[in-house]
Specification:
The structure holds two protein chains of two kinds. Chain A is of the alpha+beta class. Chain A has eight helices and 26 strands. Among the domains of chain A are: 151 residues, Oxidoreductase, molybdopterin-binding domain (Sulfite Oxidase, Chain A, domain 2, Alpha-Beta Complex), CATH 3.90.420; 131 residues, Immunoglobulin-like (Sandwich), CATH 2.60.40. The two termini of chain A are 47 Å apart. Chain B is mainly alpha-helical. In chain B, 29% of the residues lie in helices and 6% in strands. Chain B has a two-stranded antiparallel sheet. Chain B starts with a strand and ends in a 7-residue tail after the last strand. Classes of the chains: A alpha+beta, B mainly alpha.
Chain lengths: 441, 177
C-alpha cells in the first residue's frame, strides 16, 4: 500500500501529543512535524483532491490588468473588511469606529482600519496653519509649526493605543453575543514616528514647580487631559507619522500626543497646546468620563495604564469552524507596563493550558501576536487566552476582575460603556456545528 | 485590574531606570510667543480657580441663554433631551450608574472649563466669558448646589463644594512603572 503525503500527515498528527486538554498541541508542533504536518494543519488539505477538477488559465491572467493607481487601496474583494461605526450619520454625540480584529492578522493595524473615537467629528486641519503651543510653568513659551517639528530628530516605535472603554461590554452580567470587533475593537497598533516631547519641553525650559501637563486638541470640543510630567519626559512623543505616512485625520492629523501604554483619550489628537502646571486640570474627561465607578459607588481617578490583556481573534464569533480538524488559534496580547512575557491558551475553559508561540519581535507596549495549533474533535470547547508581561503583571480571570470591579445590573447596549478598563480573560465557546459564541467561563 | 507576582519586580525597576534619549544639541525651532498672543487659546481652568477670567454671571442670566442655546439638546431646565440631562441624578451605588453633575462631578470649575471649550456642541467657543459664568451659575442652581441668586465669578466658583468631591480613589501614581 502506498502512502500519500496526506496519509503521512494524518499519521504524524495522530502521534502528536496534545499538551493541554481538548486538542491543544505543542506550540512548535509545526516545526517538529515538518512540512507534511504543516500542510495538514491548515485543516483542509487532508481531504484528498478526488474531484479531478482540471486547472485552466483564469480570465484575469489573460488580459492586461488595471493601471496601477497613485495611491493603492485593497482588492475590491476585501470590501467587507471595514470598521463598524456607532454613529454613521454624525449626529451630535461621540462617534466610534472599531477595528475588525477577526479579519486582520499580524500586529500592525492598517491606517484605514485603526480605531477612532471622535467627540465631534474629525476636524479638517490645514497642516500649514496648525500650531503647537507650549506654555505655563516654562522659562519661555514657544509655538511650533509642523514644518519646524519636521526638522527635529525623530524616533519611531510600535505602540498600541487603546480606549479606556475598550471591552466595556464584558462588564455585562450576561455575555453579550457580538464579534471581537464589537467587543474589543477600540484598540489598534501602529508604528508612530515623531519628536520626543521631552526635547520640546526642555527647549521651553521646565520650571521645577511643574508636575503636570494639561494637553488640548484643536478639535471642536478641544478635548483636554492632564498628564504627569514624568510620563511626558519618559516616552511621550509628538507623533507626525502613522505606519510611515502622515497621521490619518481621525487619528490626529497633523500631530498627536502619543503616550505609549496609557489610556487612549490621553493621547491627545490634533494636539495644539500643552500647559505645564503644578496640579492636574481635572478636565471633563478625567474628572467625569474616564473615572470608572467601583462597587459601592466610589470611583477610580487617574486610571492611566492600559493593563496586560489578550483575546483570541481566530476563531472568534462570526468565524465559524468548518468541521473538525486542524486550526490555528491566534490572537493579540499587549500591556501598558511592558513587553508580553507569556501567553497561555486553553481549549477547555481554563482547566488546562498550553503555552502559545509569540510572534517575534515582541515589542514594548505593542501588539504581540500569539499562536497555538489545535485539533478540534468537533465537540464542545471553550477557548481562552491569558497573558503575562515582563513586569510580572498577570491578566485577571473574569471572576477576579468582577470581584474587584463589579459587573452591571442589567445587560447594556453593546456600544455602551458601563465602566472602563476591562482587561480580563475573554472566552469563546465552540458549538457542535462550529459556531463560535461569547461565554463566561 | 491587575494581579502581580513578585517575580516581575526586578524587571519593573529596570524599566523605570531606562533613560530617555537626550540630544546634546536640539534644533530650537520653536518661536517665542507672548501670553497676549496665547490668550485666545489659554482656556484651562484648574480646581483652584487659576485660569478663570474676569466677569460674572447669575442663574437668571444663564436661564435666558440656556433657553436659546442649550435646551434644544439638553431639554428644558436641563432635564435632558436628545443629549444628557444637566440636573438631578440618584446617588451612585452601582458601577453602571448614570453620572451627573450633581451625583459625580467633583469640581465646579470643570463645568466652566467644559462649557467654555466644548459647548454649545455645534458652535464651541462662541460664548463670552460672562455667558459661560451665567450658564455655569444656572446649572449649579438648578442642581441646588448654589442659591438661585448667587453670581458665579473667579472668586465664588472655586468655592462651590460639589457633593461627590470625596468620592474618588486616586490610582496614579501607584501603578506607574
Amino acid at each position: 500500500m502506498t502512502m500519500t503525503p496526506s496519509d503521512r500527515a494524518e499519521r504524524e498528527l495522530k502521534n502528536l501529543e496534545a499538551v493541554a486538554g481538548n486538542g491543544l498541541l505543542h506550540r512548535r508542533a509545526f516545526l517538529r512535524g515538518g512540512a507534511a504536518l504543516a500542510g495538514a494543519m491548515t485543516g483542509y488539505t487532508l481531504v484528498p483532491s478526488a474531484s479531478g477538477q482540471q486547472l485552466a488559465d483564469d480570465a484575469w491572467s489573460l488580459v492586461p490588468g488595471v493601471t496601477v493607481p497613485d495611491y493603492g487601496t485593497r482588492s475590491r474583494f476585501e470590501k467587507n473588511v471595514v470598521r463598524t461605526l456607532s454613529n454613521p450619520k454624525g449626529e451630535p454625540r461621540t462617534q466610534h469606529a472599531r477595528t475588525p480584529h477577526h479579519l486582520l492578522n499580524g500586529t500592525f493595524t492598517p491606517n484605514g482600519l485603526h480605531f477612532v473615537i471622535s467627540h465631534a467629528g474629525d476636524p479638517d486641519i490645514d497642516p500649514d496653519k496648525h500650531r503647537l503651543v507650549i506654555h505655563g510653568l516654562v522659562k519661555q513659551p514657544l509655538v511650533f509649526t509642523l514644518d519646524a517639528l519636521a526638522r527635529y530628530p525623530m524616533v519611531s516605535r510600535m505602540a498600541f493605543v487603546e480606549c479606556g472603554g475598550n471591552s466595556a461590554p464584558l462588564f455585562s452580567l450576561e455575555p453579550i453575543q457580538a464579534s471581537v470587533q464589537a467587543l474589543h475593537g477600540l484598540v489598534s497598533c501602529a508604528e508612530w514616528t515623531g519628536v520626543p516631547l521631552s526635547t520640546l519641553l526642555d527647549e521651553a525650559g521646565i520650571d521645577p514647580k511643574a508636575k503636570w501637563i494639561v494637553v488640548e486638541g484643536g478639535d471642536p470640543p478641544h478635548v483636554s487631559r492632564s498628564v504627569p510630567l514624568a510620563k511626558a519626559m519618559d516616552d511621550a512623543m509628538i507623533a507626525l507619522y502613522q505606519n510611515g505616512e502622515r497621521i490619518m485625520p481621525g487619528n490626529g492629523y497633523p500631530m498627536r500626543l502619543l503616550l505609549p501604554g496609557w489610556e487612549g483619550n490621553m493621547n491627545t489628537k490634533w494636539v495644539r497646546r500643552i500647559q505645564l502646571t503644578e496640579g492636574p486640570g481635572m478636565t471633563f474627561y478625567e474628572a467625569r468620563t474616564y473615572a470608572p465607578v467601583l462597587p459601592g459607588g466610589k470611583a477610580y481617578r487617574f486610571y492611566f495604564i492600559q493593563e496586560v490583556k489578550s483575546f483570541i481573534t481566530h476563531p472568534s464569533p462570526g468565524l465559524a469552524l468548518k468541521g473538525p480538524g486542524f486550526y490555528e488559534i491566534s490572537g493579540i496580547a499587549y500591556s501598558g507596563t511592558g513587553r508580553i512575557a507569556k501567553v497561555m491558551v486553553s481549549a477547555d475553559g481554563g482547566k488546562s493550558w498550553a503555552q502559545a508561540a509569540l510572534q517575534q519581535p515582541v515589542l514594548n507596549k505593542a501588539f504581540t501576536r500569539f499562536r497555538v495549533p489545535w485539533r478540534w474533535d468537533g465537540g464542545p470547547a471553550v477557548l481562552q487566552s491569558r497573558a503575562w508581561d515582563e513586569a510580572g503583571y498577570e491578566q485577571p480571570t473574569r471572576a477576579q476582575l468582577v470581584a474587584a470591579r463589579g459587573e452591571t445590573t442589567r445587560v447594556p447596549a453593546v456600544t455602551g460603556f458601563p465602566s472602563q478598563h476591562y482587561n480580563a480573560v475573554t472566552s469563546w465557546s465552540i458549538e457542535r456545528g462550529g459556531e463560535v459564541k461569547h461565554v463566561y467561563a | 485590574m491587575y494581579t502581580r507576582s513578585l517575580l516581575g519586580f526586578a524587571v519593573t525597576l529596570t524599566l523605570a531606570l531606562s533613560a530617555r534619549v537626550a540630544f546634546a544639541q536640539t534644533p530650537n525651532l520653536g518661536k517665542p510667543i507672548s501670553p497676549a498672543d496665547i490668550a485666545a487659546w489659554d482656556i484651562n481652568v484648574l480646581p483652584d480657580g487659576s485660569g478663570l477670567p474676569p466677569g460674572s454671571g447669575t442663574p437668571a442670566d444663564g436661564a435666558r441663554i440656556y433657553a436659546a442655546k442649550c435646551s434644544a439638546c439638553h431639554g428644558p431646565e436641563g432635564k435632558g433631551g436628545v443629549n444628557g440631562r444637566l440636573v438631578g441624578g440618584d446617588p451612585i451605588k452601582i458601577i453602571d450608574a448614570e453620572k451627573t453633575i450633581a451625583n459625580f462631578w467633583p469640581f465646579a470649575t470643570t463645568l466652566f472649563d467644559y462649557i467654555r471649550r466644548a459647548m454649545p456642541w455645534p458652535k464651541p467657543r462662541s460664548l463670552t466669558n460672562e455667558e459661560v459664568y451665567a450658564l455655569t451659575a444656572y446649572i449649579l442652581s438648578l442642581n441646588k448646589l448654589i442659591g438661585e441668586n448667587d453670581a458665579m465669578n473667579a472668586q465664588t466658583l472655586p468655592k462651590v463644594r460639589m457633593p461627590n468631591q470625596d468620592g474618588f480613589i486616586v490610582r496614579f501614581p501607584d501603578r506607574t512603572p
